[in-house]
What does this fold into?
Amino acid sequence: MNPIIDVSRLCKIVSLARPPGEAAVKPAPELVILQDIDIAVMAGESVAIVGASGSGKSTLLGLLAGLDLPTTGSVRLDGTDLARLDEDGRAALRARLLGFVFQSFQLLPAFTALENVMLPLELAGVAGAGDLARAMLRRVGLGERLAHYPKYLSGGEQQRVALARAFVMRPKLLMADEPTGNLDAATGASVIELLFELNAELGTTLLLVTHDEALAGRCGRIVRLAAGRIVGEPVAA
It folds into this structure.
């Protein structure tokens, strides 16, 4: 069986602005964000990427999703080499394959909870988008909040809408970037319980970026980053 995520020798280097007065003949200074990253994730796995702030976690997630391209190395998603696709092709692959949950929720403020969850279904031309979105919002405990706009929802409710939107397309792969970062401890714990429940129900592969060791321990495997390199993958208890 081929990995759903297959990363080989991945590096991300960005050029920095030259200090004022430095001669242009000198090479521009560079910042190495990620170096020599190798990861393989099999379908159905749950994997946490952990590390301190600035270790490269979110940059890695963006590269794995095709939101950015590496300087060197390769990323294959479901067998497709992202470097062989143009921007539109990568967007189409994300729409077909991925669900996302972000720290900042990323809900559209002018759309109701129902409309936010319907949006990916409608963009994909899925029939019965309204019924599917209502069912998923009921599943996350928001059946009575369908017509509410994000500003009238609590942080926990907004993240539940985001979970419903991510799972409503039944993605093969869910990527979550610090999904409880803007929530208090109790609310965050309830959102995480829901995340793992939905993940188990739908058999989705989960890739979770977090600095929370307890949350990472809920996953089947941990990939630990430090200064842009993988420093260990201890198996969660």
